[in-house]
Amino acid sequence: MAILEIKHVSKLFGGLAANSDVSFEMTEGMIMGLIGPNGAGKTTLFNCITGYYPPTKGEVIFEGRKMNGLQPDAVCKLGMARTWQKVRPLAKMTVVDNVMVGALCRTNSIKVAREMAMEQIRVVRLEHRANFLAGGLPIGERKKLEVARVLATNPKLLLLDEVMGGLNPAESEEIIQLILDIKQKGKITQMVIEHDMKAIMRISDRIVVLNSGEKLAEGEPKDIVSNPEVITAYLGSE
Ligand SMILES: Nc1ncnc2c1ncn2[C@@H]1O[C@H](COP(=O)(O)OP(=O)(O)OP(=O)(O)O)[C@@H](O)[C@H]1O
């Protein structure tokens, strides 16, 4: 069974179609890459999937259940969690307290939330920063904190919005390994927006390409890189 079905999703902002009749499915455990030029509609689609915007048309179906109209907190409780392109941790709180905010979606116990948070802080390898103020972290560690925070919500589907943006090659490699480790554990399905083509080719089982709000192509990475329409719309414009 598909864990996520996107059925003819459109999102209009006035006269602008940020998403236009987008459809695809994701199976459990896979990594779906979502690519496209700037302004193609990738983040808007994340927003429609996770309840930040209601789609103007179409349906988002998660584990067989229609999600349209549910608020982000309800969507999160059902098992979807997303990161934000612009990372904004709670700057005056420590790293562990930031991650606990995610864990508190699953438990009312501060003690349990702290344990859950520390577990995810270890997964992203930020133990040495656990008691630092989040506002003082460099960008690479902020991105890891963002991932720990969403992992602490215990998601079934993780949506990562440019988690490698602004990172140096070594930091990007750490995030790639983290995404692949999450996949290997087999419990979490992932959708990843990323501009780094080499990274997206390495991690994705399948890729959806958006262009001007529409789905331009979908397929395995090797087919996407050799698709002439994709090369013209996206790779050619690099
Ligand atoms: N809240 C909004 N109100 C009006 N227009 C919006 C809104 N959010 C996004 N848009 C527009 O919708 C289009 C798609 O934007 P979106 O951020 O989804 O693209 P993207 O593919 O994520 O781009 P990028 O790679 O630059 O992050 C753009 O033209 C953008 O200006």
UniProtKB/TrEMBL annotation:
Residues 4-237 form the ABC transporter domain. This is ABC transporter ATP-binding protein. It comes from the Bacteria. It holds the Pfam family ABC_tran. One of its GO terms (molecular function) is ATP binding. The keyword Nucleus does not apply. PROSITE patterns: ABC_TRANSPORTER_2. It comes from Pelotalea chapellei. InterPro entries: AAA+_ATPase (IPR003593), ABC_AA/LPS_Transport (IPR051120), ABC_transporter-like_ATP-bd (IPR003439), BCA_ABC_TP_C (IPR032823), P-loop_NTPase (IPR027417).
